[in-house]
Specification:
The protein has helices spanning 18-36, 63-78; strands at 2-11, 39-44, 51-60, 84-93. With 96 residues, it is an alpha+beta fold.
C-alpha cells in the first residue's frame, strides 16, 4: 500500500469575497472527489479571497500508480478556468 499526497497552492482570479471563494473551492473539491475518489480538503489560506491551498490524498498499490493519479488530478484542475495552480508539492509515503 502506498499513500500519495499532493498540496496545491491556488490562485482564484476575479474572486471578490470569501463566499465566492468558498463556492469555487467547494465545486473544485466535489469534482475531484467524484472523478478520482480521492480525499480532498482546503488546508490553508482560509481567510484570503483569491488564494487557497488544497491537500489531496490517494491510496494505490504502487508509487507509480499514486504519482500517475496525482498527476492526472493536477492536470484536471489545470483545465478548470476558475483557478490557476501556483505551486505543487507531491509526496509518496510507503510503509516500512
Amino acid at each position: 500500500m502506498v499513500v500519495g499526497l499532493m498540496k496545491l497552492d491556488l490562485l482564484i482570479p476575479g474572486c471578490n469575497s470569501l463566499k465566492e471563494k468558498r463556492r469555487v473551492i467547494k465545486s473544485l473539491i466535489n469534482k475531484v472527489k467524484n472523478q478520482f475518489n480521492a480525499a480532498v480538503n482546503e488546508v490553508d489560506h482560509h481567510d484570503l479571497w483569491q488564494r487557497a491551498t488544497i491537500g489531496i490524498a490517494c491510496i494505490s498499490q504502487s508509487s507509480f500508480q499514486a504519482k500517475r493519479t496525482l498527476h492526472t488530478i493536477e492536470r484536471f484542475i489545470e483545465q478548470m478556468h476558475s483557478v490557476s495552480i501556483l505551486k505543487t508539492n507531491v509526496s509518496i509515503m510507503t510503509p516500512d
